[in-house]
């Protein structure tokens, strides 16, 4: 059977453009989201007019189809055990970009979505969702990545992949996982948007994925996981569940639904409870342990309100975040994600969840048993270093799909690696993987022996600019490579693996020089002003042109007319700007720019700069790393510096299923 979805993209586009003409871009997005939320189409007993309506199907409803979509007015589908017919305009067929039977060249792991007119074609990756609107011969008219175009039908399949999006969140982590059964897990989200240099974090990417790529009005996460209680991991998650208007205005979707919120238990408490701020401590068999771990939903509510039997209350931004998750969705369950040391000693990695044929296993943190209550060991009992414990007791997961293993390691450090080695009885074979998210952004506080056990074919390091930690450290980049799985081409002259990715390196920006700022209709008397950012004598001829000048130039065809227009325009604009420059010098006009930028991980600098010599970021190519697998082959892909096309690597998965 073929998966279909109820989506009426023609009506959706009409709503968007009508709202944009009347109210502008922002309101057009709101109107588009509301259109999707309110849309329904009838499931009818037959295509005939007046046929009984069996059900009303909302936007996004999943149905099954016995055959590919056609241009027939109605299509037979099955919904919830009932067979009926829906208007074909309100239906899409779900497909995915396919791969060749044998991957001899990674470049074959892509396909082209051809767009009409002079619009740029889109380069799609293996596994990209393609929503087919109709078919004609061997060509499908489809929507992918929010764009409409045509694609060869033989490039498509109905088999989905395991997809991991390592999101560029600067200093921090953020990974969106889409499982082959269509479920989603978001692991961490980076710093809050307000503390990001780019003003974006995982919340914005996830919003784009659901609203723009899928075409939904709501974000549906089966799992949201905070690997630990550091803000550079949960801050972006909080932006998703914030209810204030300013936060919601940043997102195009209208709601976020979360099935289960997962956490490592170790939380933030007032220093009055325990000076380290991680809650009460005790002794267990001579080991210092943290005794109060966050638990299920009712426990989370009690720790937010301080209404539990122990009277304890969470503190700081972590408490605020947990409170937001609770109020965002009353149906969200809370789950402590950890494995007992007794399980680890047996070489077991408990199953957290099953997503179709993909198994999600827990590798950390490892808890001790205190009379039936899980507790976590203090990794620095003599030093009282909070970050060693919060980082070290991160949630660690292994995603198993076919012969592929992908490892999520949070912010593990040397102390926690030693503890986990002990917990697993020295046998770290369960940590070996194909792809690993690097521990703690490439910090040098790691165990090389542990990296050797991981032996990843590809490692993804999530790090940011200007974060004060010099991440990733060069010795750790080197260690990730020399401890990785080595595979060479048949000629033994090229490296297939190991591969080392860094979101900081994959990111690129385009800076543009500012020559002037023009203000129009300022104040009640609607005056126009020009502020110069460099001497007029340094202007090139083209820099004198305004938007209106460029528009007129585009409409000209005669070379002589173009030449004459350019000369006249440059002369006139130059005279006007020279007069403005003389006025600035005569009146001692000064321009100052006021703003803020990140300082370290969470600090801010408040800058005052002259307009002269200013550069602006015109384009930011997201440092996203795509990792996808069908359980046999693994693809890693990132955007090239110019934001066009992809750099793609591929290698065989190295493990048996399960």
TrEMBL record:
This is MBL fold metallo-hydrolase. GO terms for molecular function: hydrolase activity. The keyword Hydrolase applies. It comes from Pontixanthobacter aestiaquae. PANTHER family: DNA INTERNALIZATION/COMPETENCE PROTEIN COMEC/REC2 (PTHR30619), RECOMBINATION PROTEIN 2 (PTHR30619:SF1). Residues 168-263 form the Metallo-beta-lactamase domain. The keyword Transmembrane helix does not apply. Keywords: Hydrolase.
């Amino acid at each position: 059977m073929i998966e279909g979805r109820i989506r009426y993209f023609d009506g959706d586009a009409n709503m968007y453009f009508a709202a944009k003409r009347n109210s502008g871009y922002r309101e057009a997005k709101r109107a588009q989201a509301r259109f999707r939320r309110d849309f329904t189409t009838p499931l009818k007993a037959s295509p005939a007019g007046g046929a009984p309506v069996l059900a009303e199907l909302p936007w996004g409803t999943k149905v099954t189809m016995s055959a590919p979509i056609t241009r027939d007015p109605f299509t037979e589908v099955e919904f919830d055990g009932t067979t009926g017919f829906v208007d074909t305009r309100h239906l899409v067929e779900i497909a995915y970009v396919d791969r060749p039977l044998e991957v001899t060249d990674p470049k074959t792991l892509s396909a082209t979505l051809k767009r009409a007119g002079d619009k740029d074609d889109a380069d799609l990756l293996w596994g990209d969702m393609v929503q087919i609107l109709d078919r004609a011969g061997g060509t499908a008219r489809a929507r992918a990545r929010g764009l409409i175009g045509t694609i060869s039908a033989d490039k498509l399949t109905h088999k989905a992949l395991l997809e991991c999006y390592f999101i560029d969140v600067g200093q921090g982590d953020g990974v969106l996982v889409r499982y082959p059964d269509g479920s989603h897990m978001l692991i961490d989200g980076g710093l809050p948007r307000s503390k990001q240099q780019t003003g974006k974090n995982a919340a914005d990417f996830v919003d784009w994925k659901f609203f723009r790529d899928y075409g939904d009005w709501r974000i549906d996460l089966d799992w949201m996981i905070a690997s630990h209680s550091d803000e550079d991991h949960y801050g972006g998650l909080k932006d998703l569940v914030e209810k204030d208007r300013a936060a919601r205005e940043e997102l195009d979707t209208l709601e976020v639904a979360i099935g289960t919120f997962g956490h490592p238990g170790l939380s933030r408490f007032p220093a009055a409870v325990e000076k380290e701020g991680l809650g009460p401590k005790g002794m267990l068999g001579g080991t210092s342990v943290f005794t109060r771990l966050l638990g299920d939903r009712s426990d989370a509510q009690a720790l937010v309100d301080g209404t539990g039997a122990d009277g304890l209350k969470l503190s700081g931004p972590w408490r605020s975040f947990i409170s937001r998750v609770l109020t965002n969705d009353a149906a969200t369950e809370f789950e402590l994600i950890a494995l007992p040391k007794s399980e680890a000693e047996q070489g077991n990695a408990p199953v957290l969840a099953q997503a179709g044929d993909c198994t999600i296993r827990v590798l950390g943190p490892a808890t001790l048993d205190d009379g039936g209550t899980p507790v976590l060991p203090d990794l620095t009992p003599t030093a009282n270093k909070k970050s060693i414990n919060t980082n070290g007791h991160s949630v660690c997961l292994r995603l198993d799909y076919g012969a592929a293993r992908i490892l999520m390691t949070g912010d593990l450090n040397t102390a926690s690696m030693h503890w986990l080695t002990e917990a697993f009885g020295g046998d770290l074979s369960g940590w070996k993987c194909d792809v690993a998210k690097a521990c703690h952004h490439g910090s040098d506080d790691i165990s090389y022996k542990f990296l050797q056990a991981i032996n990843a074919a590809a490692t993804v390091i999530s790090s940011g600019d200007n974060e004060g930690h010099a991440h990733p450290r060069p010795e750790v980049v080197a260690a990730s490579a020399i401890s990785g799985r080595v595979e060479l081409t048949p000629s033994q002259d090229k490296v297939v693996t190991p591969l080392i990715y860094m979101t900081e390196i994959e990111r690129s920006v385009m800076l543009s020089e500012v020559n002037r700022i023009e203000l129009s209709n300022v104040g009640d008397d609607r005056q126009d002003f020009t502020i110069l950012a460099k001497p007029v004598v340094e202007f090139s001829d083209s820099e004198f042109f305004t938007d209106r000048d460029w528009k007129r130039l585009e409409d000209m065809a005669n070379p002589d007319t173009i030449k004459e227009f350019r000369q006249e325009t440059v002369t006139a604009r130059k005279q006007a700007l020279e007069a403005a420059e003389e006025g600035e010098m005569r009146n001692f006009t000064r321009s100052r720019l006021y703003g803020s930028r990140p300082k370290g991980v969470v600090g801010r600098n408040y800058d005052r700069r002259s307009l002269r010599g200013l550069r602006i970021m015109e384009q930011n190519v997201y440092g996203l790393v795509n990792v996808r697998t069908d359980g046999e082959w693994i693809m890693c892909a990132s955007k090239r510096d110019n934001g066009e096309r992809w750099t793609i690597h591929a290698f065989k998965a190295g493990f048996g299923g399960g």
